[in-house]
UniProtKB/TrEMBL annotation, chain A:
Gene3D superfamilies named in the record: Aldehyde oxidase/xanthine dehydrogenase, a/b hammerhead, Aldehyde oxidase/xanthine dehydrogenase, molybdopterin binding domain
Protein origin, superkingdom: Bacteria
Protein name per its UniProtKB record: Xanthine dehydrogenase YagR molybdenum-binding subunit
SUPFAM superfamilies (UniProt xref): CO dehydrogenase molybdoprotein N-domain-like, Molybdenum cofactor-binding domain
Pfam families named in the record: Ald_Xan_dh_C (PF01315), MoCoBD_1 (PF02738), MoCoBD_2 (PF20256)
Species of provenance: Bradyrhizobium huanghuaihaiense
Aldehyde oxidase/xanthine dehydrogenase a/b hammerhead domain segment(s): 26-138
Signal peptide start and end residues: none
A GO term, aspect molecular function: oxidoreductase activity
Keywords: Molybdenum, Oxidoreductase
TrEMBL record, chain B:
The keyword Flavoprotein appears for this protein: yes
Name recorded for this polypeptide: Xanthine dehydrogenase YagS FAD-binding subunit
Keywords of this entry: FAD, Flavoprotein
Alphabetized PANTHER family for the sequence: OXIDOREDUCTASE, XANTHINE DEHYDROGENASE SUBUNIT C-RELATED
Organism: Bradyrhizobium huanghuaihaiense
Length: 762, 338
């Protein structure tokens, strides 16, 4: 075993290499825009240079004169499209601002024209030559900009049902021995997946095929059909590989239906590859947030009062918010809790999911405040977490299905060398560098949704698994193949997995870290159906009851009996059945899923359950993160030589892919704390650093040491796979851990992200 | 990107002829319709962004044979304009006798870029001002003379505090040029009427009232080499930046000292990341010269270097940062083992 392929502990699968490693490393993996199209035309977007106002007119003469230009589509001649509701409001769309519908402009970089040409180069050149006359109105950029409006999230966002509260916060806070009030800020961020926001649309008669990086092929299929006013069965979305998603491809963006509409009119496939900077404005993003935390505690560190107030920016028409108070009000034992989330409307595109949408900003605030409280109490911050650890969440009193938070703290602290920390700020240094140690808790809700799968087993053991899951780099192919191989008792090499195609049985959006739990549970169930058919064929009738138990058509985890019965004589079973192929299809839904789950699944609507929304329990994955920061005394440069995280997430399907996800998460978290921010020019509500040279993400030299520790955890109360999602677990705690370490290094508390050298005042 | 004519120049004459023929005399060089192509890491980038729109490209890479010398002859140094950043950075004698040059190159860009990029192209690289690089912003005096300056009251964290004018505050972003400035290098120029040389310090122009004119090169002229007289083993390049690698300077200092018996006989101080051009801090040098080094002196020199600095909304921090960088670089230069 190597660092990349950790030795599996109890309740972990094998760290088998990635199913798609070879094709990715050799460049054979076909991403959406690699798909060959017959005689395509190329599209290039023209986006607005203002954030609010209208297009008075275009001067297209120069653009049209470019050789190879076929058409220039503007609001005056764009295909008519139907509206789609917001994803988080029961629809498919990431924004309800529909470009090319009218001359109106609602945000920076809105699509205002599409140039279609015989080549990409001609389309781009012509787009550069489009001249636009605008009437400019004064936009509101962000918090504190004139013209924004603020209102409570509850009542305007259908997903945000309640501001969690319990007990009497005001009274308890007023009476608390120790009180802390602090405000925190997080910036705008953009996902910037490597693969650009492309789409290729090809019509074959009345049927449309879309090649596009999507985290939800069934959502996109249904959404585009709705916008085009055609039957969803006529639309197919294909993307066997997605070059990163991070939430940016979960909901439909306006580009797809526009390109599909133009392709239909032209009767020719169209390929769009939007540029990196256009990716900043034609999709969603993580909006900036503000927080106020109030903590009341007794002198011995017990929380008696907690209040979290958050504010988030959204667009004018859409009340999007992440509302992370659902997590922060439930993380620690505390009898008196209050919270409030509000939404500030500005002239921006609608924000959306970005890796751990609620937890990243909201836990940054809470976990920073916990560290501040530990300082006030003169207490080890790990011990403060221990004192307030709980088996039941305080709002509804429901038990956590499993919770290894303190075990994670202890393991990570040991690996990190936390005991070497001298508790006084500014007390550790080496050469030019002040050294700080910091830590924070991390957590992410365990979620799953209904999923269908089709599995085919051949007499020679070859197996084909079909499920419209998504390979966004997480290892979906690999864990699905492992699940089928293990469940059917066939060698891994014999399993072929087909995902990323809306013609396959539907699976949920690859978001909310539900994919492994949902798809593997469905695949397990369908494999069991196959096994049951085989068993039934060879077993006397009197034993069919036993067969049922053995192969478990129910959702219970495999019984001992099932395991011992695995070496079923497949040859004999196939002979008895009189066929050489067995194929099964099944639809799985998690416990507590709504009644309309399967129907919704087929119409591209997500029905995730889990987290705090479960009936009589609450399910989260937990972790603890420790970081070492170094601050240069002279330049104030901040570096982060060590990131150590310990995580427990139920069954670890594959320690290799799990580690990779968590390592990426820790690095992302560091990036979020120290580097990433989309700068807004407040005068005109436009993004300024909309490229990867100026929107900083870490390079290798920034992350010399990342250590991931996987804890063994068994949880039989979540899903048949026993897995908690971990794709969004690791990047949550890092923001606070780094600011906590910076306090330790410098004695300065920084409450606004990202932290740059100019924010350090040593 | 717009269509352009691509030509390969097989000798210097052909290059300057091709460039000169296409260049309208009244155009500033950076907007000349003909541009030389070296590594292309600045030029092609800006063409894709539609910021530079040459109609002719003259590929000068075939001149590499004669123009990529790395020649330290023991006393003086000659560097050809087509030498690659990466080759110069790892050259033994450069590392030993001109560490400020080696490190200014090593700490610049990324390995891939350094393998492509040339020294001539490097000193001619253009500002990273976001408003300059994004043609959807109207107001940029450098790109669009007379249109105003979006950065002045916009997002200007990366911008300059020295050498600014009310027309432009764009930072000269490169690293290597500071080393050349500090070492009093000479630049050799080839043009239609033959060759000339001048102090490297005269190559870049401050924005003043015409930020679109960035250098004193004339259309059709090419940089062929840089020369440095003397050896400068006691020299350092210190660069402060947001990332550990692959990032432009927020503030940098190129220092070269001649210290004998504890007394500074000669001091050279150049600043990067903070000024509109590669910046020579002569006031700081004057303070240091003839003095015995201590931390107080370093501090006074640093203060002098930034005496005229003017900060704006997001970049004022560069004044304090720049001073600390200068002071620290001076300490490093004084204490380095040579
Ligand atoms: C992402 C990124 C990060 C970077 N980071 C850094 C950094 O940290 N520090 C740093 O210093 N630089 C950095 N750079 C800039 C990089 O060093 C320059 O792009 C490079 O040195 C330019 O050299 P080139 O040979 O590729 O020039 P080209 O792109 O070929 O040319 C640049 C310009 O100079 C002209 N030119 C080229 N050769 C000559 C000549 N001999 N005579 C006259 N004119 C000529 C060209 O016409 C063009 O206008 C970075 C660049 C990028 C893209
Ligand atoms: S600072 Fe200079 S380059 Fe930047 S916008 Fe202003 S004029 Fe243009």
């Amino acid at each position: 075993m190597t660092a990349a392929a950790p030795e599996p502990k109890a309740n972990m699968g094998q760290p088998v290499p990635r199913y798609d490693a070879h094709s990715k490393v050799t460049g054979r993996a076909t991403y959406a825009s690699d798909m060959p199209l017959a005689n395509p035309a190329y599209a290039f977007l023209v986006t607005s240079a203002i954030a609010k106002g209208r297009v008075d007119g275009f001067d297209l003469a120069e653009a049209r004169a470019v050789r190879g230009v076929i058409d220039i589509v503007t609001h005056e001649n764009a295909p008519k499209l139907k509206e789609s509701k917001l994803f988080s409001n029961g629809g498919y769309a990431g924004t309800t601002i529909q470009p090319l519908k009218s001359p109106d402009i609602a945000h920076d970089g809105q699509i205002i024209a599409v140039v279609i040409a015989e080549s990409y180069e001609a389309a781009r050149e012509a787009a550069n030559r489009v001249k636009v006359n605008y009437t400019v109105a004064a936009p509101s950029a962000t918090f504190d900009s004139p013209g924004t409006t603020t209102a409570a999230a509850k009542g305007q966002n259908s997903q945000f049902k309640e501001d969690p509260k319990v007990g009497d916060f005001a009274k308890a806070f007023a009476a608390a021995e120790i009180q802390l009030t602090a405000a925190y800020d997080t910036p705008t961020q953009h996902h910037n997946p490597m693969e650009l926001f492309t789409t290729s649309c090809a019509w074959i008669g009345d049927d449309l095929v879309i090649y596009e990086p999507s985290q939800y092929v069934h959502g996109l299929k249904n959404g585009v059909a709705e916008q085009l006013g055609i039957d969803a069965d006529k639309v197919r979305v294909v993307n066997p590989y997605v070059g990163g998603g991070f939430g940016s491809r979960g909901s439909m963006t306006p580009r797809t239906a526009i390109i599909a509409g133009i392709a239909r009119r032209l009767n020719r496939p169209i390929k769009l590859v939007a540029t990196r900077d256009q990716g900043f404005t034609i999709t969603t993003y993580r909006a900036e947030t503000r927080h106020e935390i109030k903590l009341g505690a007794s002198r011995d560190g017990k929380l008696v009062a907690l209040r979290h107030e958050g504010a988030e920016v959204s667009s004018r028409p859409d009340a999007y918010c992440v509302g992370g108070t659902k997590t922060t009000t439930r993380l620690y034992a505390c009898p008196n809790v209050d919270s409030l989330v509000s939404i500030v409307r500005a002239d921006r595109n609608t924000p959306g999911f970005m890796r751990s949408p609620p937890e990243v900003p909201y836990l940054f605030a809470l976990e920073s405040a916990m560290d501040e409280l530990a300082v006030k109490l003169d207490m080890d911050p790990v011990e403060l977490r221990r004192i307030n650890d709980t088996t039941n969440e305080p709002i509804g009193g429901k038990p956590y299905t499993s919770r290894s938070l303190m075990a994670c703290f202890d393991e990570a602290a040991k690996a990190f060398g936390w005991s070497q920390r001298s508790s006084q700020p500014k007390s550790m240094a080496e050469g030019d560098w002040l050294i700080g140690y910091g830590c924070a808790a991390t957590c992410y809700p365990t979620q799953m949704g209904p999923a269908a799968a089709r599995v085919r087993l051949q007499r020679d053991g070859r197996t084909r698994v079909e499920i419209a899951g998504h390979e966004i780099g997480t290892g979906a192919y690999t864990v699905i193949a492992q699940t089928a191989a293990e469940r059917l008792g066939v060698p891994l090499e014999k399993v072929a997995v087909f995902i990323g195609d809306s013609d396959l049985p539907p699976a949920p959006v690859a978001g909310g870290s539900n994919s492994t739990a949902s798809t593997c549970s469905a695949v397990m169930m369908v494999c069991d159906q196959i096994r049951q058919r085989l068993f039934k064929a060879v077993m006397p009738d009197s034993l069919t009851d036993k067969a049922k138990e053995t192969v478990g058509i129910s959702q219970a985890p495999t019984t001992q009996a099932a395991k011992s019965n695995r070496p079923l004589d497949i040859e004999k079973a196939f002979d008895a059945l009189g066929v050489s192929v067995v194929e099964e299809y099944g639809e799985w839904k998690p416990e507590g899923a709504p009644l309309d789950s399967f129907k919704a699944m087929h119409s591209g609507h997500v029905r995730l359950v889990g987290g705090h929304q479960m009936q009589d329990k609450i399910a989260y994955a937990f972790g603890a993160e420790f970081v070492e920061v170094r601050v240069n005394r002279f330049t104030h440069e901040i570096r982060c030589p060590r990131l150590v995280g310990a995580f427990a997430a139920g069954r670890i399907m594959n320690p290799r892919t799990a580690r990779s996800q968590l390592m990426g998460g820790l690095i992302w978290g560091m990036s979020s704390a120290l580097l990433e921010a989309t700068e807004i020019d407040e005068r005109n509500a436009r993004y300024v650093n909309d490229n990867l040279a100026d929107y900083l993400v870490p390079v290798n030299a920034d992350v010399p040491g990342v250590e991931v520790i996987l804890l063994s955890e068994q949880d039989d109360h979540i899903n048949p796979a026993g897995a908690k999602g971990l794709g969004e677990l690791a990047n949550v705690g890092t923001n606070a851990a780094i600011c906590n370490a910076l306090y330790h290094a410098t004695g300065q508390r920084i409450r606004k992200l990202p932290v740059r050298l100019e924010n350090i005042e040593v | 990107m717009r269509p352009f004519l691509y030509q390969r120049a097989t000798d210097p004459d052909m290059a300057v002829q091709a460039l000169g023929a296409a260049a309208a005399a009244n155009n500033p060089l950076t907007q000349a319709t003909a541009q030389p192509l070296a590594g292309g890491t600045t030029l092609i980038d800006l063409m894709k962004l539609d910021v530079m729109r040459p109609t002719a490209i003259v590929d000068i890479n075939p001149l590499a044979q004669g123009w990529s010398a790395i020649e330290p002859d023991g006393e003086n140094l000659r560097l050809g304009a087509l030498a690659k950043m990466s080759d110069v950075a790892v050259h033994d004698e450069i590392q030993r006798n001109y560490p400020v040059i080696a490190n200014s190159l090593k700490l610049a860009a990324s390995a891939q870029l350094r393998n492509m990029a040339t020294l001539g192209g490097n000193v001619m690289q253009r500002t990273r001002c976001s408003y300059f690089r994004d043609v959807s912003y109207e107001n940029c005096n450098k790109r669009n003379p007379g249109s105003g300056c979006a950065a002045m009251d916009g997002v200007n964290r990366m911008h300059a505090v020295l050498g600014v004018s009310d027309q432009c505050i764009a930072t000269y972003p490169g690293d290597f040029a500071q080393a050349l400035i500090a070492l009093d290098a000479t630049v050799e120029i080839t043009g239609r009427s033959g060759s000339r040389s001048m102090p490297f310090a005269e190559l870049h122009k401050m924005p003043g009232s015409s930020p679109d004119i960035e250098t004193t090169l004339q259309p059709g002229e090419l940089i062929s080499a840089f020369t440095v007289s003397g050896r400068w083993p006691r020299s350092v390049y210190l660069k402060a930046r947001d990332r550990q690698s692959y990032e432009f300077a927020l503030s940098s200092a190129a220092i070269a000292l001649d210290v004998q018996d504890g007394t500074i006989r000669e001091a050279r101080v150049a600043l990067g990341g903070v000024a509109t051009v590669p910046w020579r801090a002569r006031e700081a040098e004057a303070l240091l010269k003839g003095q015995r080094f201590d931390d107080g002196l370093a501090q006074r020199a640093a203060d002098a270097a930034f005496a005229d600095a003017r900060g704006r909304r997001h970049n004022s921090f560069k004044i304090a940062l720049g001073k600390r960088v200068v002071a620290r670089a001076l300490q490093q230069a004084v204490t380095m083992e040579i």
